[in-house]
Structure formats: structure tokens, C-alpha cells
Amino acid sequence: MNFSPVPKFSFHDITDISPIFLQTLGIKFLMVDLDNTIAAYSEHHTSSAVSEWALEVKNHGIELFIVSNSLRKDRVGVFKDELDVGGIMNAHKPSPIGVKQAMACAGFSPDSSALIGDQIFTDTLAANRAGVVSIIVRPKQLTNPLLALRYAAETPFRAMCKKSNRNNDLNGHADNQKIKSKQKVGTPYEQY
Fold first, then answer.
1. Total domain count for the chain?
2. Residue 79 above 50 pLDDT?
3. Is the dihedral of CA 60, 98, 184, 46 positive or negative?
4. Taking the model in full, what pTM does it have?
5. Whole-number pLDDT of residue 169
């Protein structure tokens, strides 16, 4: 179990992560945080950009799954339905249990799974502790002062990720240019 708060990869936005990049990592199961990763807290529907990205990912044979700490079944359900994906809520990240539950539900192992999220101290820690690839993105919106402070506290870990990936695994891949062009820098769990 890895307790490191340093993500494996960092991107500006979820839509910057290409399916080709994910395939080079052997990812077949992609778990995605909802709030501030798929959509800002103030957004109530999936944007066209995220919908197109999700369709492209699925068309490349990668299964998407929402893993959210949200307790709002109506909110999570809307995004789950609009993206036509499975999901769990109340995942208790940074605990790895919700991530492991998602993999068990979908029938995937850690070596073919990844988690994308916007928070180091929940999403990245949960991914690393569960043994899956951790991918961090910038939060969609930072209107809450406490969220902005937390994001500032995460900055060193985001910087460590970028520094460690300057000469990362992408350098040897044939699709390097394509990949880099897409990069910028009741129970505790409710199944629905």
C-alpha cells in the first residue's frame, strides 16, 4: 500500500487525457471523481466537452466508472445517466475501500485501473493506497476559499508529479506526439 500523496500523472483538465495515453499505460478501467473533476460543484449536467471525451474513451474499450465521495444520490445519478456509466457514491476517499469496491463491482484489477481526481488528499491518496494509477487534474472551479487553500497546500505534490514526469514513460511510445499534444500540464457505500 502506497501512502504517497504524489500522483503518477498530472493534466490540466480531464478532457486533456487521451484514450491513447491510457491505453499505453494498460488502463482498461478508468475511475473518475465527480465534483470538480467531471463538473464544477455549480454545474448540474455534463458539459459537451466531457460527454465527447467520455464517448471517445469508451470507444477505445476503456470502461468508465464514477467514484465519488458525494452523498447526493440525485446529483451523482444525473452524471452517471448522462455519461452512461456505473458508479458508487460515499466512497470515503482517501480510504482505498471505495476504489477497491468499484474494481470488484466491474471485475477489474489494480494493474489495469486508474483514478482521475482533482484532490491530492482524497483522490490521489485513495488511488495510491489502492494500487491503481493516480491522475490529478486541476479543479474545475475554486470559488470556495477553503477549497482554494487546500489547492494551495497541494501545490508541492502537484509540482513533484510534474518534475518526476518530465522524462516519464511517454518518451518511448510511438504515439508520443499525439499523447503530448493532448497533455497539459445504508452501508458506507451506495451502489446505484
1. 1
2. yes
3. positive
4. 0.83
5. 47
